Amino acid sequence: MKTNAGTLAAPFPYFGGKSSACDLVWRSFGAVANYVEPFAGSAAMILGAPDGKRVETINDMDGFVSNFWRAISKSPDEVAHYADWPCNEVDLFSRHSWLVRQTNSLVENLNADPEWFDPKIAGWWCWGSCNWIGSGWCSGKGPWVHDGQSIIDGRKLPHLGDAGRGINRQIPHLGDAGRGINRKLPHLSAGRGERRVFIMEWFSILSNRLRDVRVTCGDWTRVVKDSVTTSHGLTAVFLDPPYTKGEMDYSVGGVGTDLPMQVQAWAKQNGANEKLRIALCGHAMEHEALTSSGWTTRNWTVSGGYARTEEARSNSALETIWFSPHCLPEDPIMDLFSQPQERR
């Protein structure tokens, strides 16, 4: 869906998003009665899903992520109100400090009441993630570090690039100049009023899409039980845990731990279930143990489309998705002419 706000996508930058693989994954899932995403993150896969009637559940261990998606589905205008703010370094770090102090109570409230959300936390978190450079936003791991003798100010400057990121990226001028789709759209900075319209439109579209989606916060194993999956019929499960290796980490951690292997073990144990169609993401060779159980793989890269050469397949950084035996087989004709659509 194209709008002035862009495509139906997360309004904040998120490391490890899988928007480029949406078409590939949903062709392999096909029409299902139920969809579960235990590691939601930017929710790219559910936002890129084809139209269809199904039960949908997304989950994330990070309370800020879960709260944002729950808040945006229930009260997009309130979230937009708090997200609409100029880039300001003083505000960035004062809000960061305040948000980090809300972490424990946020997770407790999200778990205690499936209808609970906080639009202020959601808006400020989204705004900050668009201005923060690198990892560590709301991780509680800084920005001040004590080296044993003195406090080192390790704060990062807010993102001040011309293009911006997420909700702060430059948007086209919305004037009447030009004709139809061929009108000239100069890349000018938007005024405050225009920016607010831009954000509210984007958030409203997201709210409409996510209105009936169940958003949970907690350990991934909670949402892969039978009561959440196969009890609702044929179920697609999209697993995108932190990878075994990587330079970037998530706010709640996971990279470099045994979490990916725990997920792999569940996938292997449940892959033969004819009521489940499972996709598991990782780097090349990370989950090769699944291939002996009938799983198939597809390789893809964010910028270059699906990888086909042996040289590309041997690249340790290559993105790979493992599909369980009951996923739909690859359509060679469709694959020959299809290219992944980048959702920005």
Provide a brief overview of the structure.
By secondary structure, the chain is an alpha/beta fold.
Task: Describe this entry's structure for a reader.
- The protein has 344 residues and is α/β, with parallel strands linked by helices.
- It folds into two domains: 1-61 and 218-344, 3-Layer(aba) Sandwich (Rossmann fold); 63-192, no CATH class.
- The chain has eleven helices and ten strands.
- The protein has helices at residues 22-29, 44-47, 63-74, 76-83, 89-101, 103-112, 119-131, 192-210, 259-270, 310-313, 332-337, and strands at 34-37, 55-60, 144-146, 151-153, 214-217, 235-239, 276-283, 296-301, 305-306, 319-323.
- It has an eight-stranded mixed β-sheet, with helices on both faces. A two-stranded antiparallel sheet has the order 3-4.
- A hairpin with a 4-residue loop joins strand 3 (144-146) and strand 4 (151-153).
- Helix 3 packs across helix 6.
- The longest helix is centred in the middle third of the chain and has 19 residues, at 192-210.
- The radius of gyration is 21 Å and the shape is globular.
